Amino acid sequence: MASYGEPQGSWDSTEGHSPLRAVITIDTDLENNEEAHNSGASSSEGEADTTLVDEENDCEIVTVCQLRSGTVFRVPIKVQGQSLFAVVDTAAEVTLISEEVYRSLKSVPPILREVIMNTAGKGMQMNGYVVGPVNLELGSKLIQTNLYVAPIEDDMLLGFDLLRAHCIDLQMSDGQLRVGDEVIPMTMGNVMQAPRVANVTIRDKITVPPNSVMKLSCQG
Q1: What share of the chain is helix, strand, coil (3-state, %, to 5)?
Q2: What is the count of structural domains for the chain?
Q3: For strand 82-88 and strand 156-158, is the pairing parallel, antiparallel, or unpaired?
Q4: Which of 28, 47, 61, 156 has a CA positioned 20 to 30 A from the CA of residue 68?
């Protein structure tokens, strides 16, 4: 059983200092393996630090998040009253929602600040932002917090920051979250999500010329 206490520290900049820009390095390739499925353990291999950087001194101030997950546990949650399933990801130091989910919210929270996301090992940059306040419902518990928004595959990553701040117990062996006296069952694998990729095969090798479209007979 993993239990997390109250968070410490603040991310606010101090008066008189130059503005802070969030520079986030993440690995969005969420790899799942059979061993992680069976044990319920979360993989932290390939994690990359995310820091707030002072523009003038270029010095590291606070580590914000490390994003890489081997877990496939999902839990039902409501974001601004909208129901979805969040991946329970203890390797993610911050809680994220996808841009698709953010745009679909009926009550869209304002953008507080922008962040730059450097994808670890891929030489790519993505733009993201922090929004809030956002109303969350996890079981019967009501939470108001700020969330990161990023172009991620999953609808939501329930990160270490929120688990720790609200003393949520993650019980891997039982496949459940415990929020105070309330037990919330988790589900393993994809739940109610449309396929992102469709694999198809063709019998013969076909070369498609550039800047063109070709209709092929294929088998799913």
Answers
A1: 10, 40, 55
A2: 1
A3: parallel
A4: 61
- Domain range for 161 is 73-188
Give burial (CB, 10 Å; 0-12/13-18/19+) of 189.
exposed
Give the separation between CA 77 and CA 188, rounded to whole angstroms: 15
Residue 75's nearest CA partner among 199, 173, 153, 192 is: 192
Report the CATH number that the domain containing residue 126 is assigned in CATH: 2.40.70.10
- Three-class secondary structure of residue 161 per DSSP: helix
The verdict on whether omega for the bond into residue 209 sits within 30 degrees of 0, i.e. cis, is no
Strands 20-26 and 111-119: parallel
- Greatest Cα pair distance, the chain, in angstroms, is 67
Segment 117-145, tens digit of pLDDT: 655 445 566 678 999 999 999 999 999 99
Within a domain: 181: yes
